């Protein structure tokens, strides 16, 4: 009978632990100085660390600055619009702001292998920094807009600071530019934006749905702010660690259809002249881990303000995913890069022109009908107003006789992840008693557009067959 061995007695019985670095303590870049940081089992000194960070940052960002990605090497860098930086006050966004300042706004010498032939010229005419304040829905949370504004002004005087509140998503009076870009809002609400926001959040069934809804509101607010500032690029300070957490959390909540948009996406809108414009959402730090960002902030003396994070409790999928990956990264540093590379290979079967009304991401049509076909329901879940099955009425009814779902409803224009968030069953038995749930401004606008298009279609159909209809007198 074979024995596993006793590690206390036999020296060869236990497996040797892999060292933190592969070879030695010397920097793998210059091979002269002693290393100061270990990045994925590779040792780098402090002098080689800063060029490595700048190279990874520019290699991810610069190919997407020009309207045509193939021209960034031959004709330099020149964007078609302004730049909007999403600053949350956290570590990644603070490092991103510092990299933008030192790379494109501060005088520097042209380095060997620089992809920008114009040297230190800035590709954007104006640079805006936007901060989304979510302290309105967090009890006892301090307002960090002033420290964030001081952080921006301390870095650069050429950047323009913009503050946006999360409740602005429900404020029709403070979004005049949004109505000019899309369509005038036809519906109105008597409640204040903050009350509407709290009602909207309280209507969600689970803590995971609340966290996902807050992230979706922040993201769409940033997109509309980019449209109002005529920005062609929206930069987010998502590090490689945060990206891996977002990827796993999104897949766990049913967002696999739009997994490519977690890394990079292009949001399309129409301006005041009804011309289609594109905002490229880029995460330049998607190849830089949270550890490297922390070392950059420490060695550069950045005072990170810190961002608000909604605490969904222990049952929140996002919090559970964050704790799992952060704990796994300590012993296996290549975990986050493996997750990002694997998810980058995923593609959907065919394209779609449909966008979710809530998160504004590509959505797969027929989500509501598909979920109804695979759902197992009990008779207690049936509302009195719904049509019960045939055997409950004691009379057989064919499935074709049941009323079809409304194709112009909001549920039919939602992606699978948002639809699941609204229809998830809470383990605490949380039931929404309110019939009228306030909607974000862009969702009301989209509903108005769909209703107007449907009316125009009916009128055009009436005019087409008007010559073939008989009068009522005849």
Structural summary, described in words:
Helices cover 36% and strands 9% of the residues. The model is unreliable at 109-113, 176-188, 389-408 and 445-457 (pLDDT under 50). The protein contains 13 helices and eight strands. The strands form two sheets. Strands 5-4-3-6-8-7 form a six-stranded mixed sheet, with helices on both faces. It has a two-stranded antiparallel sheet with strand order 1-2. Among the domains are: 17-56, no CATH class; 65-108 and 120-344, Rossmann fold (3-Layer(aba) Sandwich), CATH 3.40.50. The chain is of the alpha/beta class and 474 residues long. α2 crosses α8 (290-300), α7 packs across α9 (317-331) and α7 (240-252) crosses α10 (335-344). The chain is globular and about 90 Å long.
